[in-house]
Write a structure and sequence with these properties.
The chain is mainly α. About 75% of the residues lie in helices and about 0% in strands. It has eleven helices and no strands. Helix 8 runs antiparallel to helix 9.
């Protein structure tokens, strides 16, 4: 029902404002003590690889910043979807589950921007071969093309060789690497031996899936 959906959006908007009031991820990102990281991005990697307070600070800051981005896009996209529903158009629901409620990297992206993900799968990933009946290297290459396109879609100036935004390309290629172990493990679990073993032990399969999601 449209009224219920609009009420849910109102609650989400209120919670987003409360989130920004009590958790200062956005303010720290813009004006806080981590501003030097924007000028020298190597500081980020130095902090993350240090086994002390600096590394822990960067990890928690990254986590809450991602939470803030998820909440922001949730409010924006649900507002736009409410207007579309008012016009009789029913677009896919983006942010259909919390970012922490995912067991796989691909599940995270399927829920993050679902409408865009569907477009990418339909018009880029599947024409390149998809994931069915292809080798792991070919699926990996198709995934790399998709994430490269996503990086350029975020910053079209990359087409003209803008070095200031090359980090977006690195971001896309890193996510391609993050997907690779998941694809390999999934292929192994589909083999007759491991598949029958896990199907006979559903509780163990669930715990192994949760462990893999936690590691991702």
């Amino acid at each position: 029902d449209l009224w219920i959906y609009s009420f849910r959006w109102t609650v989400n908007a209120f919670l987003f404002v409360a989130f920004g009031h009590f958790i200062y991820a956005s303010a720290i990102m813009t004006n806080g003590p981590l501003t030097p990281c924007q000028e020298n991005e190597s500081i980020i990697f130095d902090a993350l690889t240090s086994f002390g307070q600096e590394g822990e600070r960067m990890v928690w800051f990254s986590f809450w910043s991602l939470k803030w981005l998820w909440f922001k896009f949730l409010v924006i996209w649900r507002f736009a979807r409410a207007w579309a529903l008012l016009d009789g158009v029913a677009p896919p629901e983006n942010m259909d589950r919390c970012m922490c409620n995912n067991y796989t990297v691909r599940g995270f992206w399927r829920g993050w921007h679902r409408s865009f993900n569907r477009w990418l799968v339909r018009y880029i990933f599947i024409p390149l071969g998809g994931s069915r009946g292809v080798s792991v290297p070919r699926q990996f290459a198709s995934t790399a093309v998709v994430f490269t396109f996503v990086a350029v879609w975020h910053e079209p100036v990359l087409i003209f060789g803008d070095r200031q935004n090359l980090r977006l390309l690195v971001w896309g290629w890193l996510f391609t690497l993050f997907v690779l172990p998941e694809v390999v493990v999934e292929r192994l679990c589909r083999m007759p031996g491991p598949r029958s073993f896990l199907e006979a032990r559903p509780l163990l399969a669930r715990h192994l899936t949760a462990l893999g999601g936690a590691c991702c």
